[in-house]
Amino acid sequence: IYKRTTKYTFDFFKNALMISTPDKDFNEGYRWALIGSDRFFVNTPGLGKSLVAGYSTSNTGWWGGHKISGRPGYGWYFGRDAEWSGFALLDYGDFDKVKSILKTFNKFQDLNGKIYHEMSTSGVIHYDASDATPLYIILVGRYLKYSGDIEFIRKSWHNIKKAIDFCFSTDTDGDHLIENTNVGHGWVEGGSLFGSHSSLYLVACWAAALDEAGYMAENLGFNELVSKYKTEAETVKKIINEDFWNTENNFFYHGKFKDGTYHTEPTILAAIPLYYNLVDSSKVSPVLSKYAGNNFTSDWGSRIVGEDSPLFHPEGYHTGSVWPLFTGWTALAEYNNGNYLQGFSHVMNNLLVYKSWGLGYVEEVLNGRVYEPSGVCHHQCWSETMVLQPIIEGMLGIEPDAMKNKLSFSPRLPVNWNFINVENIKVGDNILNYKMIRSKNKTKYIFNHNGDKELILNFSPSFPPLTKIRDIKINGVSENTGKTINNNFVIFQLPDFYIKDSLYIEIFHSNGISVLPVISNPKPGYKSEGLRIISTDFKNNEYTIYLQAKSGSAHIIQLYVQDENIIKIINCKILDIKNKIYQIEVDFEESDIKYLDKSVNIYLGR
């Protein structure tokens, strides 16, 4: 057993997308999350192969409710769990396991096209979820984008089309929104957030499913369906941005009731349309600034509702506890919309859980006020995969399209990392390895490709705000190419490259300034200390960091500075300067207000 397990593990690491960085905790936690995710893939003879949801001891069951022989966590098959978790398996390149997951969904699809919510290992199945079916469509569409396995899509089209048609059939009132009513729960299964006719979460999943349906239909040559699905997707996106936007709260409604009114509670589930790129740019900042603050974010992750909500209860499963799943959704939304600092902070919230309790693994749920477990399982599938998915899709910015033999690659790395090695980026039959080496005024990017055809690479690395691009060399030759996009960070967009074997890029640059992400490392039993970076800005030679923390507290932030002349700093004190990193102390005065907002203003001589 030991020899088989050891060989399996080494072979798994050899084939999975691997990342090595200067951060030891990151490297170790990433590897634990890979192994932790893979261990949920289970073969039940006579049923099939898929992901089970969570592992725990069976001695007393859930919350000690049985004297002996209780249920062993969630050790059976779930629809939505396998679908959300399957995205990460695609990210790290395990296409075969995702194909097995999809085959199991196809095998046990209901006659009306609906995908199951739960299936026991003894074959008892029920279909009481509304989100499992649109998420199936998203997963199978992404499987095509990652693997290029058009023959499987063609063979499965009967199942896929039935799932799409089922979703359309649940819009009983003709408002273009698929429904929870008489179909099933979405993410929320009970409590005060339950009861929407169409929840924002479900509607966002439907819009994303329509996008994937259009992609699959296009590659199968079903042009009439392409037009139908894309037109409907745009209609649903418009409804999300117009009808689901609460102008009074400057936030999205949680759901729509049958009488046309809306559930006004702000929730973390608004991260889903932001992750799926469904939201107008003007609505992004109001949502993400709330997620960045202490009301939603603790030192160990994101709550479903804010601390100030009348619904908040720190142990409530759907009313205040911290789920690594929610934290991962938040990180994905942040990375997709330019909030890279906050995205990395949330990534590390999830990743570092492996050091506590079920050592090496990530908890199902954590208390919303104290750093301690609050769920059934010490080892939960979606928690493990939500370490990986925001890293690969968000921090690395990997977006494949195997049908075009193309990879969009937009790394958004912490600015104090001087190297990263990424192995086994898979796009169809292609494998791409990537190295970044950063020195004072030069960053080198080395790509090595293995594949029968040239891989099209769309590459857009990021740099700290105010960075000036001085020169670029492609395979040793200076080129006048690329364009700079100034966002929260400097994004350098390069033209498409066609890689047969290797590619060597050198970018020469100067200047730049950026606060580093806040990395919380709470100990079990601790309460949240509360330092948050809400946002940053640069205007008129002034770099501003907007912070939030508990009143009466003091915190140290780190500031990366390259070739900039700081002439004045307001609202903080410089403690140390070493290797381009400033250690800065910020005091938050005593107040009756629990959390204070404060800006650090840095004036540059330019």
Concise summary:
By secondary structure, the chain is an alpha+beta fold. It folds into 3 domains: 34-395, Glycosyltransferase; 402-514, Immunoglobulin-like (Sandwich); 529-604, Sandwich (Immunoglobulin-like), CATH 2.60.40. The strands form 9 sheets. Strands 1-17-18-19-27-22-23 form a 7-stranded antiparallel beta sheet. Strands 2, 3, 4, 5, 6 and 14 form a 6-stranded antiparallel beta sheet that branches. Strands 15-16-20-26 form a 4-stranded mixed beta sheet.
Explain what this protein looks like in three dimensions.
This protein is 31% helix and 28% strand. It has 606 residues and is an alpha+beta fold. The mean pLDDT is 96. The chain has 13 helices and 35 strands. The longest helix has 21 residues, at 200-220. A hairpin with a 3-residue loop joins β24 and β25 (490-493).
Estimated radius of gyration: 24 Å
Number of domains: 3
Largest sheet: 7 strands, antiparallel
Q: Strands of the biggest beta sheet: in what spatial order?
A: 1-17-18-19-27-22-23
CATH topology of the largest domain: Glycosyltransferase
Classify the secondary structure makeup into a structural class: alpha+beta
Q: How many DSSP E strands? A: 35
How widely separated are the two ends? 65 Å
